[in-house]
TrEMBL record:
Keywords: NADP, Oxidoreductase. InterPro entries: Ald_DH/histidinol_DH, Ald_DH_C, Ald_DH_N, Aldehyde_DH_dom, ALDH_GabD1-like, GABD/Sad-like. CDD domains: ALDH_SSADH1_GabD1 (cd07100). This is NADP-dependent succinic semialdehyde dehydrogenase. Residues 3-454 form the Aldehyde dehydrogenase domain. It comes from the Bacteria. GO terms for molecular function: aldehyde dehydrogenase [NAD(P)+] activity; succinate-semialdehyde dehydrogenase (NAD+) activity.
Amino acid sequence: MAIATTNPTTGETLKTFEPLSDEALEDRLARAAAAFAGYRLTEPAQRAGWLRSAADVLEADTGTVAELMTTEMGKTLASAKAEAGKCVKALRYYAEHGESFLRPKPADAEAVSATEAYVVHQPLGVVLAIMPWNFPLWQAMRFAAPALMAGNVGLLKHASNVPQTALYLEELFRQAGFPADVFQTLLIGSGSVERVLRDDRVVAATLTGSGPAGQSVAAVAGDALKKTVLELGGSDPFIVMPSADLDKAAEVAVTARCQNNGQSCIAAKRFFVHADVAEEFTRLFAEKLADLTVGDPMDEGTQVGPLATESGREDVERYVADAVQKGATVVTGGRRVERPGWFYEPTLVTGVTPKMGIYSEEVFGPVAALFTVSDLDEAIRIANDHVYGLGANLWSDDEAERQRFIRDVQSGMAFVNGMVTSYPDLPFGGVKQSGYGRELTEVGMYEFTNAKTVWIGPPSGQQGEGSTAGAAAE
């Protein structure tokens, strides 16, 4: 894929970029390594100050950067502004809490025959972030804010269709006062990722993207014995039980499925509705989907914009056509919007069976698959019959049902009476083929730190028999 800004609302390519030459890439890597040598010695309080400055800069730039994201990948301007605001919040969260996360964690010194014992989290070095286009600012910030706060240096290989947003991120941290080259954007194609990941100056990587991309990065990193964090696909279940407020559940279901024009890993994609309320919920869900305004994402009244790429819309069309050909029913939607750009109607499909691609694969567009189930056990069983395990939603006012859902659903996140989303204050990530590792809160920061054990004995002249107990037990 060319490195270019192509407006999905019109299909027009607005700006293209040349990928870095081998010499330029080598220069970037050398500069990153040199930057880490000094940056790792900065005090957490200083890093927190730079993060606060970055938050201020981004807050002032919100309107401009939101328009840039909408132009590059088609999210509505309102959602782009909200995304920028979320990044501001994350920067301030780590500025506020990062110092405490990095303080030494005391251990029981007496239990380990020491006069002092603790754990200190130290930065690893240069970390490569490989990020997708669907949340072009937020996905990168989930990595950048905690990694920079911890003292690491970042290299960003962003998706090729959001190059201007990627370059903005580098400029953001420069304007905030971070030392030169602490965060750099690499305009390179996917073919250059292995070279960067294998380079000895790069110590770890994080990727948000597809399963095949995750497998490729994990294989290279594993061969080179380098740490990775992977956030891959999702096909989140959305379970509705009879005790739920159906109108509220249907309203949230629409947002959960169509947020970001349906292009979100944590979007609810499979809807499991109890037979006692299936007819009513289906009616409400279909009506609310049909009422959405599809159009120019720059317009304030637009609720669903275009898909980010032409090939993405073709994939959605293929999934729906396959389901219909194999017996599914399209309740509402199911067609491309006949206008310039890559628009597709919000769609509800029922009668889905395992022989359809929509059953077992992730549909990255505003298409919901609805299943009628006899009870919660059946809903959880079918929900778990999937390779992904990112997030999961339950709508129920029954405490026993809630506890069974939390215990038994196979996911990294479980939300009750609300839709799955991300917060700086909570860990984010999945299980199974949705990846491994966590982002956000202190857990996300620690993914790219060395949890170093420190054991201090008494002065050498005072050491007794107890000081060697640990070594003997080993």
